[in-house]
Each structure stands twice: as structure tokens, then as C-alpha cells.
Amino acid sequence: MSQPRNKILLAFLWFARIVGLVYTVLILLFFLAYLFPPGEADFSWRDGISFFFFPFCVCAGLIISWKWSGIGAITTLLGLIGFHVSMRITGGAFDLNPFIDFPAIPAVIFIIYWLLHRK
Question: What are the domain boundaries of the chain?
């Protein structure tokens, strides 16, 4: 692989890592605020199912991507798909929310890096 191409791939990798890390920290803060509200907690089984996919699978995938970019990115994308499917099945709306679907951007960058960097 040529030197300039290597630097571009490395820049994309670090961009995806930093964006994924910032997003993960932000989501975990929101998640903790939801789990420990000032009043009485209102946590249903539907919340448990959707929380498995988002934020758990999504954030876990972004963290795994630091070491194994392909596996982590696929985990992130499957978490997003699972979240939307579970919301639809449990009676929620199919809502393409940019705040929720944003992790697809670093996940796609991780997949591109993984595909181009494989030996």
C-alpha cells in the first residue's frame, strides 16, 4: 500500500474513532440520566428490548471498533437495525432520528477502513 493512501486511511480511522468515542460518552450520559430520573422510574419491557440494541449494542460496537474495526462496525450497524426493528415490532414508530442513527457514519468508515486495510 502506498504511503499517501496509508495516511488517508489512518486519518479516516482516527476520525471514526474520535467521533465514535465522543458519541459513546454522550449516549452513556443520556442513558444514565434516563435510568436514574429525579422522580419515579418508568422502565418498561419495551424499553429493555430497545436498550439492548440502542445504546448497548451500538456503543459496544463503537468501542470494539477501536481494536477490531470490522466486527465493531458490524455490531454497531446490527444494533441500529435491531433497534429500529424492535421499535416497530413493539408498537413504536419507525423514526429515522439523526441523533440515534448518527453512529452509522463512523461504522461505515470503520467498514471501509477494514475492507481497504485487510491483507
Answer: 3-34+43-117
| Sole residue written with cell 419495551 | 46
Q: What are phi and psi of 14, to 5 degrees?
A: -70, -35
pLDDT (tens digit, 9 = 90+) per residue, 27-84?
Answer: 999 888 877 878 776 777 888 888 899 999 999 999 999 999 999 999 999 999 999 9
Secondary structure E strands in the chain: none
- Whose CA is closest to 73, among 21, 110, 28, 112? 110
Handedness of CA 32, 37, 41, 46 (dihedral sign): negative
How many other CB atoms sit within 10 Å of the CB of residue 7? 10
Find, among 100, 117, 105, 57, the residue nearest to 82 by Cα: 57
Closest alpha carbon to 83 in 41, 38, 46? 46
Q: Taking the model in full, what pTM does it have? A: 0.89
Q: Which positions ≥6 away from 35 have C-beta within 8 Å? A: 41, 43
